Amino acid sequence: MKLRFALALSLAVLVLDQWAKVWIKTHLMLGEEIRITDWFILHFTENPGMAFGFELGGNWGKLALSLFRIAAVGFIVHWLIKVSQRESSKGAVISLALILAGAAGNLIDSAVYGLFFDHSYGQVATWFPEGGGYAGFLKGKVVDMLYFPLIDTQLPEWLPLWGGRPFRFFEPIFNVADTSISVGIGLMILHQKELFPKEEEAETAEAPSEAEQIERQDPPASAV
């Protein structure tokens, strides 16, 4: 039951992530935005790298990152199966399910978006363009759109070094998959004892009990 729940949760988050990305990709040009509020903006951007807009540049960097994502998804699936079979809490299972959904979501972008869509520079992308997509397999870009500039102000003049400069928090633009990974990591920290039990068991097994320590220090006298 735990595994079914985890896979259902991962699928739900993955569908939401891909729906949001496809909608943005097919409705906005690169750099366009929809302002929901002053601090909640849908801003269409793409990055060839990691979460929250961090980049690993070059074609080799994109390929290496895509291959890493494939390996990560496989590892997380294996880990999720093992954890769901143990006496683990639902929180521990959810943490891996969310990380799996996020990793798979960004993997889909980098793996096939370059094949399915044309570029978004000065135009709204279309599905399966006649001239082919904007990039090859595993070399696509990740679609980001969630932008929360909660604070947009200017630092006071009296502040050393940075005085008078504009200040904005939070600047990174991300997506549903990035959010899923971040929440999953947070839950993982809370449930780390359930997710990493072998380390603790190994430490317990290596440490001799009090009775064993006494026997080693004072062996019984041999019979005369």
Helical stretch tally: 7
Subunit organisation of the chains: single chain
Instruction: Determine the fraction of residues in helical runs and give it as a percent range.
Output: 40-55%
Which percent band covers the strand fraction? 5-15%
Low-confidence stretches: 202-206
Structural class: alpha+beta
Terminal-residue CA separation: 63 Å
H/E element string?
Answer: HEEHHEEEEHHHH
Radius of gyration: 25 Å
Description:
The protein is α+β, with helices and mostly antiparallel strands. Helix 2 (58-85) runs antiparallel to helix 3. The strands form two sheets. A four-stranded antiparallel β-sheet has the order 1-2-3-6. It has a two-stranded antiparallel sheet with strand order 4-5. The termini are far apart. The chain contains seven helices and six strands; from the N terminus they run αββααββββαααα. The chain has one domain (2-197).
